[in-house]
Specification:
Its EC number is 3.2.1.23. Keywords: Glycosidase, Hydrolase, Signal. This is Beta-galactosidase. By secondary structure, the chain is α+β, with helices and mostly antiparallel strands. It folds into four domains: 135 residues, Sandwich (Immunoglobulin-like); 192 residues, Jelly Rolls (Sandwich); 240 residues, Alpha-Beta Barrel (TIM Barrel), CATH 3.20.20; 108 residues, Immunoglobulins (Immunoglobulin-like, Sandwich), CATH 2.60.40.10. The protein contains eleven helices and 47 strands. It has an eight-stranded parallel beta barrel, surrounded by five helices. A six-stranded antiparallel β-sheet has the order 3-2-4-9-6-7. The longest helix is centred in the middle third of the chain and has 16 residues. It binds beta-D-galactopyranose. Beta-D-galactopyranose (GAL) binds next to loops. The site of beta-D-galactopyranose has 13 residues, from loops.
Length: 874
C-alpha cells in the first residue's frame, strides 16, 4: 500500500514530460523545509495586527470566494503591517528556531493542570511567527507563483518581502495566495507569516501553527484556475460512464490567449495508468484578465467503479496549448460511482445498499498533535478498516486534504464537515466571531477543494449549531438554506446535511432545506422522524459517545450508564456499559437503529481518542444543551457541577473505540463483531489477572460475529448462551474469579466459528516490541509505530503493568513521540521514556531525509528483559 501511495503521490505532484525543453508548465513544490519560528511578537503591535484591522485586507485576498451579494472585497491602499520588524526582509531572525513543517507548537507542551482540560491542558493559543528565506530562479520571471497553505491555526497573515499579501482566519480552511506581484525571481525572498490563535476558541484541542502542508505552485500566466478542474459523472451504467470535465482557465497575461484544451482520462491501478478516453480538443480565446469555462463530456466504456471494497480511481489529464506550446497540464484524480441516500433503503453506492459503518474523528494525531503526517493518518485508517469501519466524519471541520486522498485510495466514505458553530458560538472566541464575514468563503473553499473526491458522499454545513434549536418561526432554517445554497452552487452532486442533537431539527424547517438529516444521539427520535418525514433520508451523524479507558475494569459492574462506581481514578471502566449522560452504549444505539427502516447507518463518536474533551472528567456545562427535559437537565447540571469541583488531571477523551496511542479498546471488537459479520472472531473481557478477587463475582462479556457461545473457566463450562433479538453481547454476569484461563468458543449456525482466551499473567518479566512497518522510506516523514508489551515469562500480557520503559534508537531515524493511551498522563509526548498503561507503550520512530540504512530501536525497563526491533530506511 505504501508503495502504491507513493507512486500515486508522484503522479499527482510531479511534472511529466513537456513539449518544449523548458521548465514544466506547472510545478507544485513542497514548501515545508527551512522555516524559522518564534513565539515573540513584533514590537509595538498593540493590537494593530488584530483581525478587526486586518479584515478588509483578508477579505480582499479571498475575493474569489465571495459571490455577488457578499461583503466588500476591494484591497485597501497601503501596506498592512508593513512597518513591523518581523515582516521586514532584512529583519535579523538568526536567533529563531529552525524547523520543518508541518509544525504544531502546542503539542510541545508542557501540560499544566491549570490549563483547560477541554482543549487538552496544552498551550496551543497565542501569537507565533514563521519566516522562510528562499531563492527563486531568475527563469521564473513572468510565471505565476502561488503559495498554498493547507491549513494554518489560526488568523494567518502573510507578508512577502515586507509586503502584505493576504491571509485567512479559519484555521481549518485551505487557501492560496498569489505571490506574483511581490516576488523577486533571481533574488533572495523572505516570507513572514503571523498566526494568532485566540483563547476560548475551541471545544477540543485545535492544535496550532503551520500544522498542515505548504506548497509553492508555479504556472504560466495562462493556467487552470485554483481548484478549477471539476469532474462529475452525470451518468453511470455498467456499459459506460459519462464523465464531464469543466475547466476554468485564467488568462493572467496581457494579451488575448487563443487556446486549445484537451483532456484524456486514464484508469489508475497498481501498475500505473491506462488510457480510458480521449477528448477532442476544444478551442477558446480568453481576453487578458478573464476566465473561461469549458466543459467536455467523455465516455468511458465498462467503467471500473469506485467502491469501498474496490476503490478504483481515474485521473483526468488536462493539457492546454497555445501556439502549439504546452502552457498548462493538470492532473485531477477522480472516481466513477453513484452515491444516493434514500429514505427507504438508506445509502446506496453503485446501486447497492452499503450501511454506513462510520466513525467521527477529530484531526489530531494523538502524541503527534495536529501536525499532519500521511503515515499517521494512513495507520488510523488501517486500524479502522480492520474493525470493519467504512466511513469517516471529519468532525467538525475541513480535514487535511491528505485524509481525503487516503479515503479515495483505501475506500472510505466521507462526511465532509465545515463548521461546529454558525452565528451563535459555543465559546467566547470561536468561529461565530468570523461567521458573518467568512462562512461563504470557507464553505466555497471546502467544496471547491474537495468536490472531485469519490470518497466524499455528504457535505455537512454544521454540527449541533445553536440555531438548530430555533422554532420554525425563528427561521434558523433560513440560515441553513443559505449555507446549503452556497454548497449547491459549488456542487450539485452530493446531499447537504448536518449533525443535529436537537430533536426539533427534524420538524422545524431544517428537514426541508437539507437533503439528509443526521441525528446526534437522538435514538428516541428515529422512529418518530421516520413517521413524520417518510421521504427524508436519515442517519446517525453521531452515535454512542460511550466511554472507556483501555484495560480498566471496576467492580461491581452496573448497567447504569453514568454509574459513579464505573468511574474512578479519572478512568472509566471498559465494560462498554458507560456513556456520556446524553449518550448511549453501543448496543442501545443498535437496538434503536435496527428498528428503523431506511436508517442509513452511523458515525460513532469517536473512532480514536483525541486531545481534549475528557468527558466525564471535564464538567462541560455546554453539553447541557443536549437535554430538553428540564428535570434531567437539572440532574445533569448537579452532577457536572460536582465534578467541576474536582481538579481533574484528564486531558484527552475517553470516547474513542481506539485509545490515543492507537491501541484498540474492548469496544473495538464490539464494533468488529457487528461490522464484519463474515469474519470469524470472538473477544472476551475483562483480562483475567485479578489476584485480589479470588472467589469474587467478576462478570465476563463476549463479543462475537457468531450467534452463540460457550464459556469455560479452567476447562469447566459456565454455560452456552445465544444472542437473542436486540442482543449484541453475551454476558456471564455471575462468574467467580479463579486464576487460570477463561475461554469462549463461539458458534455460528451451530458450527464452531471462533475462540478467544484470557489467561492469568504471572509477574512481569520481559518487554516485547513489534513494529507496524519495518521498511520505511528515508524521507524524514515516514513513521514506524512500535508497540511494546510488558509480558510475563510465558508471553502473556501483564494487563495492569505500569513499568517505565526507556527507548533508544540507532541508525538514520529519531524517536518523535511516545504514548500509552492514558488520558491522565502529563508526561511530555516527546519524552524518550514512558510508563506503560495497562501493559502497553507506544513509540513512534521517524526516518531522516535522504539517509538510508538499518535502524535499531531498543526498549529497556529495570528488572525486565529488554526488547529490540530492526527497521530499515530505504
Ligand atoms: C456531541 C458533540 C461532539 C462531542 C460529543 C461528545 O454533542 O457534537 O463534538 O462534544 O458530543 O459526546
Amino acid at each position: 500500500m505504501r508503495l502504491l501511495l507513493l507512486a500515486a503521490t508522484l503522479l499527482i505532484s510531479l511534472p511529466v514530460s513537456v513539449l518544449a525543453a523548458e521548465a514544466p508548465p506547472r510545478e507544485r513544490l513542497s514548501f515545508n523545509e527551512g522555516w524559522l519560528f518564534s513565539r515573540t511578537d513584533a514590537e509595538w503591535v498593540l493590537g494593530q495586527l488584530d483581525y478587526a484591522n486586518a479584515k478588509p485586507w483578508l477579505l480582499a485576498s479571498a475575493a474569489d470566494f465571495f459571490g455577488p451579494t457578499s461583503p466588500q472585497t476591494a484591497r485597501p491602499r497601503g501596506n498592512f503591517g508593513g512597518g513591523f520588524t518581523h515582516v521586514q526582509a532584512d529583519f535579523d531572525d538568526r536567533g529563531w528556531r529552525p524547523l520543518t513543517l508541518p509544525h504544531d507548537w502546542g503539542i510541545e507542551g508542557p501540560f499544566k493542570q491549570e490549563y483547560p482540560g477541554d482543549t487538552g491542558k496544552l498551550p496551543w493559543w497565542g501569537v507565533a511567527w514563521y519566516r522562510k528565506h528562499f531563492d527563486l530562479p531568475a527563469t521564473d520571471a513572468g510565471r505565476r507563483i502561488v503559495l498554498e497553505i493547507d491549513g494554518a491555526m489560526a488568523h494567518s497573515l502573510v507578508w512577502l518581502n515586507g509586503q502584505f499579501v493576504g491571509g485567512w482566519p479559519y484555521g481549518y480552511s485551505s487557501y492560496q495566495l498569489d505571490l506574483t506581484p511581490y516576488i523577486k525571481p533571481g533574488q533572495p525572498n523572505v516570507l513572514a507569516i503571523r498566526l494568532d490563535n485566540p483563547t476560548e476558541s475551541s471545544r477540543w484541542y485545535p492544535g496550532s501553527g503551520l500544522y498542515r502542508n505548504v506548497w509553492l505552485t508555479k504556472t504560466n500566466p495562462v493556467h487552470v484556475a485554483p481548484w478549477g478542474a471539476i469532474v462529475t459523472t452525470p451518468k453511470v451504467t455498467a456499459e459506460a460512464a459519462q464523465v464531464s470535465i469543466q475547466v476554468l482557465t485564467d488568462n493572467d497575461s496581457a494579451t488575448n490567449a487563443a487556446l486549445s484544451l484537451s483532456t484524456e482520462l486514464f484508469a489508475l491501478d497498481d501498475t500505473g495508468r491506462k488510457s480510458a478516453a480521449l477528448g477532442q480538443p476544444i478551442t477558446v480565446t480568453i481576453e487578458p484578465g478573464r476566465q473561461a469555462s469549458t466543459t467536455q463530456t467523455l465516455r468511458v466504456p465498462q467503467p471500473r467503479l469506485w467502491s469501498v471494497t474496490h476503490p478504483h480511481r481515474y485521473v483526468a489529464v488536462t493539457s492546454i496549448t497555445q501556439d502549439g506550446r504546452l502552457v498548462d497540464r493538470l492532473e485531477t484524480p477522480f472516481g466513477i460511482r453513484t452515491a444516493v441516500f434514500d429514505a427507504d433503503r438508506g445509502f446506496r453506492l453503485n446501486g447497492e445498499v452499503v450501511p454506513i459503518r462510520g466513525v467521527c474523528n477529530h484531526h489530531d494525531l494523538g502524541a503527534l498533535g495536529s501536525a499532519i503526517n500521511l503515515r499517521a493518518l494512513e495507520r488510523q485508517l488501517e486500524i479502522l478498516r480492520a474493525m470493519g469501519c467504512n466511513a469517516i466524519r471529519t468532525s467538525h471541520n475541513p480535514p487535511a486534504p491528505e485524509l481525503l486522498d487516503l479515503c479515495d485510495r483505501m475506500g472510505f466514505l466521507v462526511m465532509d464537515e465545515a463548521f461546529d458553530c454558525w452565528a451563535k458560538g459555543k465559546n467566547r472566541h470561536d468561529y461565530h466571531v468570523q461567521f458573518p464575514d467568512w462562512h461563504e468563503a470557507d464553505l466555497r473553499a471546502l467544496v471547491r477543494r474537495d468536490r472531485n473526491h469519490p470518497s466524499v458522499i455528504l457535505w455537512s454545513i454544521g454540527n449541533e449549531v445553536i440555531e438548530q434549536w430555533f422554532a420554525d418561526g425563528q427561521e434558523g432554517w433560513k440560515l441553513a438554506a443559505r449555507l446549503a445554497g452556497i454548497v449547491r452552487e459549488e456542487d450539485r452532486t452530493r446531499p447537504v446535511s448536518a449533525g443535529f442533537n436537537g430533536e426539533i431539527s427534524g420538524y422545524n424547517g431544517y428537514q426541508h432545506v437539507l437533503d439528509a438529516i443526521g441525528y446526534n444521539y437522538r435514538i428516541k427520535e428515529y422512529a418518530r422522524f421516520r413517521e413524520i418525514n417518510p421521504a427524508i433520508p436519515l442517519f446517525g451523524a453521531e452515535t454512542a459517545s460511550a466511554l472507556s479507558s483501555r484495560g480498566v475494569y471496576f467492580f461491581p459492574i452496573s448497567d447504569d450508564k453514568i454509574d459513579p462506581a464505573s468511574r474512578a481514578d479519572f478512568q472509566v471502566s471498559s465494560y462498554d456499559l458507560y456513556a456520556a449522560p446524553w449518550a448511549t452504549p453501543p448496543d442501545v444505539e443498535w437496538r434503536a437503529a435496527d428498528a428503523v427502516p431506511g436508517y442509513a447507518g452511523e458515525f460513532v463518536w469517536t473512532g480514536f481518542d483525541y486531545l481534549g474533551e475528557p468527558t466525564p472528567y471535564n464538567a462541560d456545562l455546554t453539553n447541557l444543551l443536549n437535554f430538553s427535559d428540564p428535570a434531567e437537565k437539572e440532574r445533569q447540571k448537579q452532577l457536572l457541577t460536582e465534578l467541576g469541583r474536582i481538579p481533574t488531571p484528564s486531558r484527552s477523551s475517553y470516547f474513542g473505540i481506539i485509545d490515543l496511542a492507537g491501541f484498540p479498546k474492548d469496544r473495538y471488537y464490539f464494533y468488529q463483531a457487528r461490522w464484519r459479520p463474515d469474519l470469524p472472531m470472538a473477544h472476551l473481557l475483562p483480562h483475567w489477572t485479578w489476584p485480589e478477587r479470588a472467589g469474587e463475582i467478576t462478570p465476563i462479556h463476549a463479543y462475537t460475529s457468531g450467534d452463540e457461545a460457550e464459556l469455560f473457566l479452567n476447562g469447566r463450562s459456565l454455560g452456552r448462551k445465544q444472542r437473542g433479538p436486540g442482543e449484541y453481547r453475551l454476558r456471564w454476569d455471575d462468574v467467580k474469579y479463579a486464576p487460570g484461563e477463561v475461554k469462549v468458543v463461539a458458534y455460528k449456525q451451530g458450527a464452531v466459528w471462533a475462540e478467544a482466551v484470557q489467561r492469568t499473567a504471572g509477574p512481569a518479566a520481559r518487554l516485547k516490541a513489534k513494529a507496524d512497518r519495518r521498511e520505511l522510506t528515508a524521507d524524514g516523514r515516514d513513521l514506524s509505530f512500535v508497540t511494546v508489551r510488558i509480558e510475563d515469562a510465558d508471553g502473556v500480557l501483564a494487563p495492569r503493568a505500569e513499568n517505565r520503559v526507556a527507548f533508544a534508537v540507532s541508525g538514520p531515524a529519531e524517536i518523535v513521540a511516545t504514548d500509552n493511551g492514558d488520558p491522565t498522563s502529563f508526561e511530555s509526548f516527546q519524552s524518550k521514556e514512558r510508563a506503560a498503561f495497562n501493559g502497553l507503550v507506544l513509540v513512534v520512530v521517524r526516518t531522516q531525509p535522504g539517509t538510508t540504512g538499518p535502524i535499531t530501536l531498543t526498549a529497556t525497563s529495570p528488572g525486565l528483559a529488554p526488547a529490540e526491533v530492526s527497521l530499515t530506511a530505504k
